[in-house]
Write a structure and sequence with these properties.
Membrane topology (chain A): Multi-pass membrane protein
InterPro entries (chain A): AAA+_ATPase, ABC1_TM_sf, ABC_transporter-like_ATP-bd, ABC_transporter-like_CS, P-loop_NTPase, Type_1_exporter
Distance between the termini of chain B: 79 Å
Number of strands of chain B: 10
Mean pLDDT of chain A: 86
Pfam family, one (chain A): ABC_tran
Structural class of chain B: alpha/beta
Number of helices of chain A: 21
Transmembrane segments (chain A): 21-47, 67-93, 160-184, 261-282, 288-309
Helix content of chain B: 55-70%
Strand order of the largest sheet of chain A: 8-9-10-5-11-12
Structural class of chain A: alpha/beta
Radius of gyration of chain A: 35 Å
Helix content of chain A: 55-70%
Number of helices of chain B: 23
Oligomer: heterodimer
Radius of gyration of chain B: 35 Å
Subcellular location (chain A): Cell membrane
Largest sheet of chain B: 6 strands, mixed
Largest sheet of chain A: 6 strands, mixed
Mean pLDDT of chain B: 86
Number of strands of chain A: 12
């Protein structure tokens, strides 16, 4: 933990720089309030002493009245300034935090691929930069840290101002009080912040504890009851709780036992602050009023010894800004607004393009190969079905098609142009996809459909037509129709069933096609639909799309058999392709799989395909 | 109130059991802190008076008292808070355990599926700290009141009028209360805004959502909406906190006037020689602290009231657990005849719609029974009733003639095993995820490998980097299995009870590919149909896919909570009802052209 002074200063200045994202007048207002707040205790000390002086020797009472009013105003001003300052700092903190979150979002979307989103480093830094940290009863963030740094600076300023008042009486006393207070503060800070670090080191165990508690109330609760796990879970939780707390407890008692020096120094400095002015009165060097001024001012110097929240806020915030800086360093070379200029070969705007995968290889960053020399052509307007066992790379193929990943080798072309040379944002405007884990926006039904084509977000008629085409009749029965909020956790949200959500997702894709998307990809679009809807899906939805190429991914071969072409993937490449009839005519894997699924509808079981392996 | 005292006594006992010496230390520190304002005020009076009078001994005494009071005010508070943190940590563990045990002793899950109860339970789990701190809340209230009373007494000792003038601190107090209310309402108001902002924020930064946002280009819209929500939050907070501050400032106006009034009365007394300069110092200290002292009293009383809610939740759970306690006969080791439902109707507590209506059916011993029906037909509810998760309010469920309600719930559960549609994804070690199906044999390698074999989970386990020792769940630094893999592990867990009287498999195939689905079904059905394993066991398969049911001995068709058809596959097809229609609808996908080909 030994950081050089230079490094510490640099970190602190970095925090202060963060203030520039708040409005200037807010910052000026905040600094003014802090300045007044820092100077008032020193003034208060003088006014208090003045009152004690005049109370004894003012026969006509006008100076006394003045002194009383002055002191009352001082008390009033201290409290009013602090109330107003709290309002301003609150807004400054929220502005800084809002800005930080926005910046993180921008940085997340700056690279055109999404690989970085999957990296642990990105996720850790993004969370560290934007997520609030837990304090006792309050949250910590970049904003609280920046403001905390200001608080700290002005606390010092206040102490120095009070020390100047003390110095008019005794320079050695002023220096001694200031030195001891700053030393005590540094010592106390070191002790307690080290304690926070010990506690933070147990964060993973805390997570585990939270998980074990949730097991008994969450989705897992049913099985916890069924299998009679509760006692096992609680025993385990208890052991873990003691295990996780032990280091913190040990460190805590160590700190508590090491308070003697602090107490001694504090009592000593307070004793000096009282004794030296009092002894001067005993000697007759000063009067009672001056003594009171010195005591009140001395107390104000000692106040710096109180360790407020700001010390912990700053510590947390330093980590957050360095996470933000790391993100900016890695991803901040271009912001969303000033991406590279569009490349030379834009996609032809009209017509459905032909897409070719040419010897495409792809492996995830852990080296696991997914696609291996894949060659596939999606002709304009074709309806292609992709089938194959779980984990064969069907979803990866979509991501490559959308340019979310780059092939590790080989290339993908659009009407003959390499995808790498195209403006990706432009290219993606010709795609519509329904992923298996499609998004559930915390927004209205209309938005949930229309966000597939954000440029047409206000097209309610289009949304209605898309919903109708997707068979989402239930929308008509909802009291608020298209404006029904689908955010269940919100105050007026409606919960949809899995099947209903799936229809919303299908409507989303159809809306995108209506708005000019030329390639429609549907990944397991019927997984949550019931039997009747599933059997009608191809006919009602897929066949109705006439202006786009359709890529349909499904496990259920009955739902894809009408496709123009069925492509069977195995081990990262095409194993078989052709129409349903063609594939059934060859004695291949597709036929085996189809018969296998169909066999459960026939009375004579088809060949028991125990030999069909999974890859 | 009596309950609150009971719980108070209980938490005090827990505190004492946790660490007696710390309890005493905290109480002493609390008392010392309560006396701080008084000690500081008195020391300042003595200091001024003795210094002016030239009494050295008095000055030294006053300096010593003031110095100690200062040291305690700086370190004592922090020490007490941290000792309290330590003590609360210990008591908190004890209370959490107690709550978990209470919850565990309730045989049904009604309280876990109703938002109202779940909310109470959730607040209770998050409120364990409040419970642990309950006795200290009372102590805090007591000492805050004592400290305030001492201040007022001390002021009144200078002049009764000064004591009366302390009332000037009441209107400011009310205004502070009002200002706090404004802030609280604003925070409640903004909580939803902020949750929505976070949701949108997370969409922009996670890969799952990122892929769709990148393709649709909706990322910009989502980003803007998140920023707009943030701006709106800032606007509301600014307005509210400014209003709150204005109330508070109005309060300080009153307070300032009262303060000036006190000084006025006091300085008149000093001029008349009825009070010393030291008294001025003392009154200044006391008057400046009065506001804080009053606020502390109100704050402590307020948090006592808040703690009352948690106490209510705690007492509710305790009583509920007691009411739900049931013991009963041991279930038969082997079911001879079967499980019978007679005229069972069911609706979820707090809802208006019957999910099951007048259902009568029989699951004969030693058979495989299929339950089919479209979504929302009541299949899952039937499963919950059979596994004892809910009791039936109307109708009876009997096992070999004995009502299920008269069997010992835990013992019946021990005879049952299941894979639910929303199976649990226990983020433990892979071996534990399976082994908890029979927790007594959690680490028995033979049973574990048998269960894995029966569930066909061998390849799944082999694919994990460390086999059975693999940590699952990325949150704990482990791997995230695919849905299919999780399902295999869940099936393995169910198979840890190979001799269960009732095995339930609910909707297992929604996310599986054809080969995996086939493997799973043959696995389960062959397992169930194997003559040597039947031995009275009942296997219940639930699905909305009709093809999967053909092999069952008996198929029950549910529609909107009623049994509409019942019989073997052949019987139901002959009958040409709902089952036959839906079966054909699915089968057509494979038959019309498919099997007219070169099959």
């Amino acid at each position: 933990m030994s950081r050089s002074l230079l490094e510490v200063t640099r970190g602190r200045i970095r925090l202060l720089r963060q203030l520039t994202v708040a409005r200037r007048w807010l910052v000026v207002g905040m600094l003014t309030a802090y300045t007044v707040e820092a100077l008032l205790p020193a003034i208060n000390a003088w006014v208090t002493g003045h009152l004690v002086t005049v109370i004894g020797d003012d026969p006509d009472g006008s100076r006394l009245r003045m002194a009383i009013l002055l002191l009352g105003s001082c008390m009033f001003a201290i409290n009013v300034t602090s109330a107003l300052r709290a309002v301003i700092t609150g807004v400054v903190i929220r502005r800084i935090d809002g800005w930080t979150r926005q910046r993180v979002r921008q940085l997340a979307r700056t690279p055109e691929q999404i690989g970085h989103l999957e990296s642990e480093t990105f996720q850790d830094d993004a969370r560290r930069a934007a997520d609030p940290g837990k304090g006792v009863g309050r949250t910590r963030s970049v904003g609280t840290a920046a403001v905390g740094q200001v608080t700290l600076l002005f606390k010092f300023l206040g102490a120095v101002a009070a020390a100047v008042v003390v110095a008019t009486f005794s320079v050695p006393l002023a220096v001694a009080l200031l030195t001891v207070s700053v030393f005590v503060r540094a010592r106390v800070r070191r002790q307690w912040i080290a304690l926070v670090a010990v506690k933070d080191a147990q964060a993973h165990n805390e997570r585990r504890l939270g998980y074990l508690t949730r097991l008994t109330v969450g989705q897992e609760a049913k099985e916890v009851k069924l299998f009679g796990l509760a006692h096992w879970v609680t025993r385990r939780r208890q052991a873990l709780a003691y295990h996780a707390a032990a280091p913190t407890w040990r460190a805590l008692w160590r700190v508590l036992r090491h308070q003697k020096l602090t107490i001694f120094l504090l009592a000593g400095s307070a004793g000096l602050a009282l004794w030296i002015p009092a002894s001067a009165v005993l000697d007759g060097r000063i009067d009672a009023g001056r003594m009171v001024t010195m005591i009140v001012a001395g107390w104000a110097v000692l106040a710096i010894g109180f360790l407020g929240f700001e010390a912990f806020d700053i510590e947390y915030g330093l980590g957050a800004v360095s996470a933000l800086d790391r993100l900016m360093l890695r991803h901040g070379h271009a912001t969303v607004s000033d991406r590279l200029p569009p490349p030379a070969t834009p996609v032809a705007p009209q017509g459905v393009p032909e897409v070719r995968f040419e010897h495409v290889h792809f492996a995830y960053r852990d080296g696991r190969p997914v696609l291996d020399d894949l060659c596939l052509t999606l002709s304009a307007g074709e309806r292609v079905a992709l089938v194959g066992p779980n984990g064969v790379g069907k979803t990866t193929l979509i991501k490559l098609l959308a340019g979310l990943y780059q092939p590790t080798a080989g290339r993908i072309t659009v009407d003959g142009h390499d995808l790498r040379d195209l403006d990706l944002a432009d290219w993606r405007r010709s795609l519509a996809t329904v992923f298996q884990d499609f998004l559930r926006y915390p927004a209205s039904i209309a938005d949930n459909v229309a966000l597939a084509a954000p440029e047409a977000v206000a097209d309610r008629a289009g949304v209605e037509q898309a919903l109708q085409a997707a068979g989402a009749d239930f929308v008509g029965r909802l009291p608020e129709g298209l404006d029904t909020s689908l955010w269940r956790a919100g105050s007026e949200g409606t919960e949809l069933s899995g099947g209903e959500w799936q229809r919303i997702a299908i409507a989303r894709a159809l809306f995108a096609v209506r708005n000019g998307r030329r390639i429609l990809v549907l990944d397991e679009p019927t997984a949550h639909l019931d039997v009747r809807a599933e059997t009608a899906f191809y006919q009602h939805v897929v066949s109705s799309v006439s202006t786009a190429t359709v890529v349909l991914i499904s496990h259920r071969l009955s739902t894809v058999r009408s496709a123009d072409r069925i492509v069977l993937l195995r081990a990262g490449r095409i194993a078989e392709q052709g129409s349903h009839d063609e594939l059934m005519a060859t004695d291949g894997e597709y036929r085996r799989m189809f018969l296998l699924q169909g066999s459960r509808f026939t009375d004579t079981p088809a060949a028991q395909p125990q030999s069909v392996g999974r890859h | 109130m009596r309950r609150q005292w009971q719980v108070l006594g209980h938490t005090l006992r827990l505190s004492l059991r946790a660490d007696r010496r710390t309890v005493v230390a905290i109480a002493l520190l609390m008392a010392a802190e309560a006396g701080l304002v008084i000690a500081t005020a008195l020391s300042q009076r003595w200091l001024v008076d003795t210094a002016v009078a030239g009494r050295l001994a008095g000055v030294l005494g006053a300096v010593a008292l003031g110095a100690v009071a200062f040291a305690v005010s700086v370190t004592g508070n922090r020490m007490r808070e941290n000792m309290l943190l330590y003590l609360m940590d210990r008591v908190n563990i004890a209370i959490s355990q107690e709550i978990l045990h209470l919850d565990a002793s309730i045989p049904t899950v009604a309280h876990l599926e109703q938002p109202r109860y779940l909310d109470a339970l959730d607040r209770l789990h998050r409120g364990t700290w409040t419970l642990a701190a309950l006795c200290w809340q009372y102590a805090g209230t007591f000492f805050a009141l004592a400290s305030l009373a001492a201040s007022v007494t001390l002021l009144a000792s200078v002049d009764p009028l000064l004591g009366a003038l302390t009332l000037f601190a009441v209107p400011p107090l009310l205004m502070t209360q009002r200002s706090n209310r404004i802030l609280r309402r604003m925070w409640d108001d903004c909580a939803e805004l902020s949750r929505r902002e976070w949701l949108l924020h997370d969409m922009c930064t996670t890969p799952e959502a990122g892929k769709e946002l990148a393709i649709t280009g909706a990322g910009d819209v989502i980003d803007q909406r998140a920023s707009a929500l943030c701006q709106e939050g800032i606007r509301r907070e600014s307005v509210a906190s400014l209003r709150a501050a204005l109330w508070e400032i109005l309060g300080w106006c009153f307070y300032g006037a009262g303060f000036v009034g006190i000084l006025w009365v006091l300085s008149a007394k000093v001029t008349n020689g009825e009070a010393s300069l030291g008294a001025v110092m003392m009154v200044l200290v006391l008057a400046a602290e009065l506001h804080r002292q009053l606020n502390r009293v109100v704050g402590e009383v307020g948090s006592l009231a808040a703690a009352g809610h948690v106490v209510d939740h705690y007492c509710w759970l305790r009583d509920y657990a007691r009411d739900q306690q049931r013991t009963g006969a041991a279930p038969p080791a082997r079911i001879e005849r079967g499980i019978k439902l007679e005229n069972v109707s069911f609706r979820y507590p707090g809802t208006e719609v019957d999910v099951l209506r007048d259902v009568s059916l029989e699951l004969r011993s030693g058979t495989v029974v299929g339950v089919v029906g479209v979504n929302g037909a009541g299949k899952t509810t039937l499963v919950k009733i059979l596994t004892g998760m809910y009791e039936v309010p109307a109708g009876t469920v009997t096992v070999d003639g004995t009502p299920l309600a008269e069997l010992d719930p835990a013992a019946w559960r021990a005879r049952v095993t299941a894979v639910f549609q929303d199976f649990a994804r226990f983020q433990l070690l892979a071996g534990e995820t399976i082994g908890v199906g029979n927790v007594r044999h959690l680490h028995d390698p033979t049973r574990l490998s048998q269960a894995i074999a029966r569930a066909g989970a061998g390849p799944t386990v082999a694919a994990l980097p460390d086999g059975l020792a693999t940590q699952l769940g990325p949150a704990f630094g482990g791997v995230e299995p695919s849905t299919g893999q999780w399902q295999r592990l869940a099936l393995g867990r169910a198979m840890m009870r190979p001799d269960a009287s009732l095995t339930v498999v609910d909707e297992p195939t929604a996310t599986l590919d054809p080969v995996a689905e086939h493997e799973l079904f043959t696995q389960i059905i062959e397992e169930g149909l194997a003559a040597d394993r039947r031995d009275g066991r009942i296997i219940l398969l639930v699905s909305h896919r009709f093809s999967t049911m053909r092999l069952a001995d008996q198929i029950i068709v549910l529609d909107a909570g009623r049994v509409v058809e019942c019989g073997s596959h052949a019987e139901l097809v002959r009958r040409d009802g709902v089952y036959a229609e839906l079966y054909r609808a699915q089968a057509d996908g494979y038959t019309v052209a498919g099997l007219s080909g070169p099959a």
